[in-house]
Amino acid sequence: MNPNVRPESMERITTPALAEKFIEEQVALIKQQVGDKKVLLALSGGVDSSVVAALLIKAIGQNLVCVHVNHGLLRKGEPEQVIKVFRGEMNANLIYVDAVDRFLDKLAGVKDPETKRKIIGAEFIRVFEEEARKLSDISFLAQGTIYPDILESKGVKAHHNVGGLPEDLKFELVEPVKLLFKDEVRVVGKALGLPDNMVYRQPFPGPGLGVRCVGAITRERLEVVREADAILREEFAANGLQGKVWQYFTIVPDFKSVGVNEKGERTEGYLVVLRAVNTRDAMTATVPEIPFALLQKITDRITHEVKGVNRVAFDLTPKPTGTIEWE
Ligand code: XMP
Questions:
Q1: Residue 205 Cα to ligand 1 middle (Å)
Q2: 258 C-alpha to center of ligand 1: Å?
Q3: Residue 170 confidence (pLDDT)
């Protein structure tokens, strides 16, 4: 039996009771595989790695070592939530790495999107490798691989890509959710007691806000993307759109637009673009209707609350012709 093929007989996990059964089975399997050895996990705070962390904590407690790398491209409040939930509430053995300056210095002046992605991916591996080397007694590496990752034959996710680790750090893998689909991972996450905004989180690319701060990233413009994104998410949640719209975020292009302030003076400020899409598989996407009054409220909040912004636009483009991300 190929361990990377989901058996036809495997029941779809749709209820809390089925999730409990899965958790019980996986905890036993993890204990059997790992024994009293230590396991390392890159914990991004996304659904998949969070569910894997919670499962392993249940199975082996402090023998799971979680590494959370803050590369400065995460959404507002994310690193804080990882620390609060995992260290504060689950008593996880969590190493928090503040690598913000390191990433932003490497990215300074880099305009090409693929080069930005490569730098972010490679630097992530380097930071993770450095942390792994500080720990002498690791025997396993846990990963939040899910079934679509296997089906897309990537095997591992770009931003957790252990393929990039040197040979001596390629530990045996622990991948407890590798046969699950995303909706099943969410049911399991809920049963494990993870907060809703972690379990029902929209997809977030590995390079994070880095590809939404178009062109060469500056710290100032990155803060604009982050603050505007937080307002968009807050308003979507308050108006019942969280969990209904598949992905929604902000983009800030690398030019300033001309505007005028309340005193009638000419201003130069950033343009914030709002993007909201629905899709099944991210290959094509449609733009849902968002109530006009809500778009007006979001525009008003962003132009008044986010420093340096004088204009907001809503991207009406389906995929094709536009991709979901802007670069
Ligand atoms: P596009 O922009 O190609 O995006 O229509 C399709 C989906 O993929 C996500 N995306 C990425 N995810 N690393 C990731 O992990 C990336 O470099 C990346 N680029 C795009 C995007 O957010 C959307 O969900």
A1: 5
A2: 31
A3: 87
